[in-house]
Amino acid sequence: MSNFGNQVQFQVYQTMQNPDPDRLPVLYEEWEKKARDVLEDGPYYYVAGGAGGGKTMEANLSAFDQWSIVPRMLRNVEDRDLTVDMFGQTYHYPILHAPIGVQSIIHEEGDLGSARACAEMGIPFTASSASTVPMEKIAEVMGDASRWFQLYWSKDPDVTASFLQRAENSGYSAIVVTLDTPMLAWREYDLKNVYLPFLLGEGVGNYLTDPAFRSKLDKPPEEDPTSAIMHWTQVFGNPGLTWEDIGFLRKHTTLPILLKGVLHPDDAKLAMDHGVDGIIVSNHGGRQVDGSISALEALPQITKTVQGKMPVLMDSGIRRGSDVLKAMALGATAVLVGRPCMYGLAVAGGKGVQEVLKNIIADMDLTMGLAGQKSMAELDRKILNKTT
Ligand SMILES: Cc1cc2nc3c(=O)[nH]c(=O)nc-3n(C[C@H](O)[C@H](O)[C@H](O)COP(=O)(O)O)c2cc1C
Ligand SMILES: O=C(O)C(=O)c1ccccc1
């Protein structure tokens, strides 16, 4: 049971007599603006940009305005329960750190700063296949804290199998298989800025240290980094995959498997038919298909199809506490936070990530209580009104 939001709020106001000149931002917009100030064009737009004309990114945010919360009164909301259960475990909050590659382009602490921040807060960190440091190093700084591994399903099955094995060996407790990025989309800002971090050797840490990947190179990456990166561009993704291939993953891991990037209810059904353990409704933050359905718009149909038979997580557009509440009320089991964490990382390293997540949780907790609700896991559609 918690009154997390009240505590965070109190801590802030307590400093009123003693203002901190290095105070970190509160508003999402302020984090983004500060990140813009500290980052070069290439890295900033790599994070902030989307596919094509950015329509999906906009839709991800405006979708939340199409639902309004209808608060209830006099329901004793003094102690609130923020926990959710997934895959036989209880999580403190319905929030995870989204898988984000190449964090080293944003801050020198990179993936390790974010992972440490999450570990300290009891928020699961989802390590990306495209991290700059290998997954074992991330695991090391997290100790026993909860972590998931995001798989980019390589064209080379040996690399895929090896990643799954390494994740299991280093204490990751779930595998997130990202389906929406077998190749990178047409990203106008990155093309304009001529910026692709991998070609600079960022975000390839798991590959360069992987025995299966290395065994396919003529020379080790330490001797010939350019050829290693060229090989990476050949095997990174696999646009040839079909639903029949899911069996390969099952054969190579005993961990729960979640499919990330599901937007169509028929794909949610196929996911269940193929025996996966969960899905993540996501359009990759609008970075893949411009003009795609927003993730929040896709959510209700999908939760209706899944009928509570497996966890349905959601990301793409979570910025504030009320966003979390709306997604949960539409049937999400938990949500993932992406860009806000990256702006936190850019501005203040791991400390910034922690501040961003702490504020979202505090806002979420207070908003839930003020809406007359006591438990994240019990939120339902009845607290929402569709405005359009
Ligand atoms: C810079 C950046 C890198 C990302 N890298 C990955 C990745 O390696 N793997 C992955 O599954 N998703 C990746 N994503 C997508 C996020 O996991 C998540 O779906 C997205 O950020 C959600 O949108 P939002 O941040 O606008 O809320 C990345 C997103 C950003 C912004
Ligand atoms: O940039 C991305 O959205 C992304 O998912 C990605 C893909 C490959 C490597 C690193 C990140």
TrEMBL record:
Binding site for FMN: 99-101, 128, 150, 178, 282, 315-319, 338-339
GO molecular function, one term: FMN binding
Cofactor: FMN
Keywords annotated in UniProt: Flavoprotein, FMN, Oxidoreductase
Primary enzyme class: oxidoreductase
Ranges where the FMN hydroxy acid dehydrogenase domain occurs: 20-388
Active site residues per record: 284 (proton acceptor)
Gene3D superfamilies cross-referenced by the UniProt entry: Aldolase class I
Pfam families registered for this protein in UniProt: FMN_dh
Reaction(s) the record says it catalyses: a (2S)-2-hydroxycarboxylate + O2 = a 2-oxocarboxylate + H2O2; mandelate + O2 = phenylglyoxylate + H2O2; 2-hydroxyoctanoate + O2 = 2-oxooctanoate + H2O2; (S)-lactate + O2 = pyruvate + H2O2
EC number(s) stated in the UniProt entry for this protein: 1.1.3.15
Coiled coil start-end: none
Record: residues binding glyoxylate: 46, 152, 187, 260, 284, 287
InterPro entries, A to Z: Aldolase_TIM, Alpha-hydoxy_acid_DH_FMN, FMN-dep_DH, FMN_HAD, FMN_hydac_DH_AS, LMO_FMN
SUPFAM superfamilies for this protein: FMN-linked oxidoreductases
PANTHER family reported in the protein's UniProt record: FMN-DEPENDENT ALPHA-HYDROXY ACID DEHYDROGENASE PB1A11.03, S -2-HYDROXY-ACID OXIDASE-RELATED
Family: Belongs to the FMN-dependent alpha-hydroxy acid dehydrogenase family.
Protein name: L-lactate oxidase
Protein source organism: Lentibacillus salicampi
